[in-house]
Amino acid sequence: MENPPEFIQTLLTLREPGGVRDLGFWDSLTNLLAMGPCLFDSIEDWPLADVTSRESLEETLIDIEEGAYLDRVERRMSAWSLCGSHERHQDIFRSRWPGWTIDFHHEGLPGQFARSSRDPAQVSLGENGILRQIVGLLTEDTTFEPRDFLDHLRARGEEIEWVHPDFLKTDPPAIVGDERASLLARSIADYRRSRPG
């Protein structure tokens, strides 16, 4: 585990007899929770992560993809992940955290803050911030070169006997860049007009 990480992918919130503290990690939530309660020994001197006072809250919240609230007093854990991958490991987590109540939610970081008795608005982007994120993700032009990917697989020793011809196509999608942004802006405007109040 990198201490402290260059950027935070996973945020753990610990409630202990002395109060609540947030710790940031580059490691995945699944790897951290798989450690069981010995995780606490590994992170005893871990530096605090102050996600609410970063210079750019929006960028910080984009980086955080998963987290968990761990109440050491009540032996209760509540975890979430944008991709939900940790949920398929529930049985492993329950076996490694005996005596703990474990649940999973889909409320993200605001839900994690609420469970630790803090105001979820501290880590909420609000509607405009969320819309900016969506616009950024949908209008970003990403490139993918299938031949480079195949070369990478072959360099790793993968045996590739046949590739579907469509896999090698690099044609851009029918709607690109500015067109996607314009379409999205119109959709958001229509959505806002349709909302009551």
Structure description:
Helix 6 runs antiparallel to helix 8. Strands 2-1-3-4-5 form a five-stranded mixed sheet, with helices on both faces. Helix content is 37%, strand content 15%. With 197 residues, the chain is α/β, with parallel strands linked by helices. It has two domains: 10-123, 2-Layer Sandwich (Nucleotidyltransferase, domain 5), CATH 3.30.420; 131-194, no CATH class. Strand 3 (66-71) and strand 4 form a beta hairpin. It has helices spanning 29-33, 39-42, 57-63, 90-96, 108-115, 126-139, 146-155, 177-194; strands at residues 10-16, 19-25, 66-71, 76-81, 101-104. It starts with 9 loop residues before the first strand and ends with a helix.
Write the layout of secondary structure elements.
Blueprint (H helix, E strand, L loop, with lengths): L9 E7 L2 E7 L3 H5 L5 H4 L14 H7 L2 E6 L4 E6 L8 H7 L4 E4 L3 H8 L10 H14 L6 H10 L21 H18 L3
Parallel strand pairs: 1-3, 4-5
Antiparallel strand pairs: 1-2, 3-4
Distinctive features:
alpha/beta, Nucleotidyltransferase, domain 5, 5-stranded mixed β-sheet, 5 strands
Quick structural gist:
With 197 residues, the protein is an alpha/beta fold. It has eight helices and five strands, in the order E-E-H-H-H-E-E-H-E-H-H-H-H.
The amount of beta strand, in percent, is: 15-25%
**What string, H for helix and E for strand, traces the elements in order?**
EEHHHEEHEHHHH
| Envelope shape | globular
Q: What share of residues is helical?
A: 25-40%
Give unreliable regions as ranges: none
